[in-house]
Design brief:
It is a single chain. By secondary structure, the protein is α+β, with helices and mostly antiparallel strands. The chain has three domains: 2-100, 60s Ribosomal Protein L30, Chain: A (2-Layer Sandwich), CATH 3.30.1330.90; 118-383, no CATH class; 388-496, no CATH class. 51% of the residues lie in helices and 8% in strands. It has 21 helices and five strands. The protein has helices spanning 2-14, 27-31, 38-46, 118-128, 132-140, 144-164, 179-188, 191-211, 227-238, 244-264, 269-272, 278-292, 297-309, 327-347, 356-369, 382-386, 390-404, 432-442, 459-462, 473-486, 491-496; strands spanning 20-26, 50-56, 67-74, 77-88, 91-94. A hairpin with a 2-residue loop joins strand 3 and strand 4 (77-88). Helix 1 (2-14) runs parallel beside helix 3, helix 7 (179-188) packs antiparallel against helix 8 and helix 10 packs antiparallel against helix 12. The longest helix has 21 residues, at 144-164. The radius of gyration is 26 Å and the shape is globular. The relative contact order is 0.09.
Length: 497
């Protein structure tokens, strides 16, 4: 969404002066751009003129990992350019605007309200006797309720459309839509489990619409767009006392919670991991739900802080760069977590050591500690596992098999399973039935028959001991079966090996 807005803004400045465009995408924006249909969004804004894309996933601009440069070209001559940063939730900032960014931790947003901390807002509420939503109405002025009504209507339509969606999502993963089936299952289920099933269905419906390139509301981002609508739709349609007017007030509350995180930390998965997207969305939904359940301002703050607190460290590792796996399921799970946080905050006193403001600060600090590859690059985590090519997949299964008989697969792992002896202690002997296998591993040549290197570190460093009280039990056979499945594509030779 941010790149789309950037392209629209740039076109208004240079379209009459050029006959084609060059777009350079950097960092995470380039790494996941095709999966997020970034190029499609940009082309749609710049058409009918031709657009050439240059992808630089391994080059990151100084200010933000989601950077892009657009050049207006007249033939081969450049007539203008601008660098934009997509900083989350569709918001963009240009190089020329960077001087406006004040404060620590890359504050990329100017405060919408005079109060930009939850502690400050709670003091205002206590002083005036008013609610969080009242602060929004006073600050925004006329028209804000109409705008929030439009937002709610869009969310509701998105849920309704998503519940009817069938087939597989575009992008190449062939991921089937689940919202429709989940909704039907909820209708057939008993009351004990239908509570969650309905909630999951509503969140899935919106997240799947986003994955299908349909209209959604960023709440606060496209990747986390199903959480707030899912919770609010559930509250509206499964609680007869909740009205549309109540939902509008709840949306105002949710917006304040998201704005605090946006101004003081980040809502960008590329900058701070999925905790900044799904975590913040969960906090927004938890606060809104607490409000609808009659919670106080203090309980709203508690629920919101708890929601982010329990998602600290969540990485952003979309498979193939698509907002599908694990993103869609995370939307459903976070919607459930939001309601749990609301109920917890309502059922206990509001005493807690860490405030919402402190959790937000912790989130951005944690985000900076998350490995770069796990912040929306599709180079690590689940994305890495899925993207293994055939040869790498074969080698991975071979390594796992070796691990099961004693050789450590990764140098970063140094674990032992079950009972074991300390280094140098030979009082416990190897079971006779496994002694030959372990001895074989210890005496392995430096290269196998295929020329693959064999780990030559000391046994102490590379050994992962199986539980000596088991006889390789079902765990071994399950893993061996999975290895056989993994080698299926290698033909008969691979299966035999």
């Amino acid at each position: 969404m941010g790149p789309s807005f950037a392209a629209k803004e740039f076109k208004a400045l240079y379209d009459e002066k050029c006959d084609n465009y060059v777009v350079i995408l950097y960092g995470s924006l380039a790494a996941t751009g095709k999966g997020h249909m970034t190029d499609v969004a940009i082309e749609n804004e710049l058409k009918p003129k031709k657009v050439a894309f240059i992808w630089k996933p391994n080059e990151t601009l100084t200010f933000h990992v989601n950077g892009m440069t657009i050049k207006a070209m007249k033939g081969e001559a450049e007539v203008g350019q601008e660098t934009y940063y997509s900083v989350g939730g569709g918001a963009i900032i240009t190089d020329s605007e960077l001087e406006k960014c004040k404060g620590p931790y890359k504050k990329t947003f100017s405060p919408v309200y005079s109060l930009s901390t939850m502690n400050g807002i709670m003091r205002w509420c206590r002083k005036t006797g008013l609610k969080i939503c009242d602060m929004v109405y006073e600050s925004e002025g006329e028209g804000i309720r109409e705008y929030l009504t439009e937002v709610w209507n869009t969310m509701s339509r998105c849920v309704s459309i998503g519940l009817e969606g069938k087939g597989v999502l575009p992008g190449g993963l062939n991921l089937p839509r689940k919202a429709h089936d989940m909704y039907r299952a909820a209708q057939r289920s008993n009351e004990m489990i239908s509570h969650n099933a309905y909630l999951f269905a509503y969140a899935l419906a919106v997240a799947e619409n986003n994955a299908g390139g349909e209209v959604v509301v960023t709440a606060p981002t496209c990747g986390a767009c199903g959480i707030v609508p899912g919770v609010l739709y559930y509250m509206r349609h499964h609680n007869p006392d909740v009205t549309d007017d109540d939902i509008i007030d709840a949306l105002a509350v949710a917006g304040v919670i998201g704005n605090i995180a946006k101004v003081n930390a980040s809502i960008s998965g590329a900058e701070a991991g999925c905790q900044a997207e799904v975590g913040v969305a969960c906090a927004m939904a938890a606060g809104a739900a607490t409000f609808l359940m009659g919670g106080s301002t203090e309980q709203i703050e508690y629920a919101a802080g708890m929601a982010i607190e329990h998602m600290l460290g969540l990485t952003c590792d979309p498979v193939k760069g698509l907002v599908q796996v694990p993103c869609i399921e995370r939307n459903a799970m976070a919607a459930g977590r939001a309601l749990e946080c609301a109920e917890y905050a309502l059922m206990t006193n509001t005493f807690h050591l860490i405030s919402y403001d402190e959790v937000v600060l912790t989130m951005i600090l944690t985000g900076e500690d998350i490995e770069d590859s796990l912040r929306e690059t599709s180079r690590a985590g689940l994305a890495q596992t899925y993207n293994l090519d055939d040869m790498a997949r074969k080698q991975r299964w071979r390594d796992l098999k070796s691990q099961l008989i004693g050789i450590q697969r990764r140098s970063s792992i140094n674990v032992q399973w079950g009972q074991h002896t300390e280094p140098g202690d030979s009082s416990e002997e190897q079971p006779a039935e496994h002694a030959s296998e372990v001895q074989h591993v210890a005496e392995s040549p430096k290269q196998d028959s295929e020329g693959m290197p064999i780990d030559t570190r000391t046994e102490e460093d590379k050994m992962i001991m199986l539980n000596r009280n088991s006889d390789y039990d079902s765990f071994y056979y399950v893993c061996l079966f999975e290895m056989m499945i993994g080698m299926k594509g290698a033909g008969k030779e691979g299966m035999e090996r």
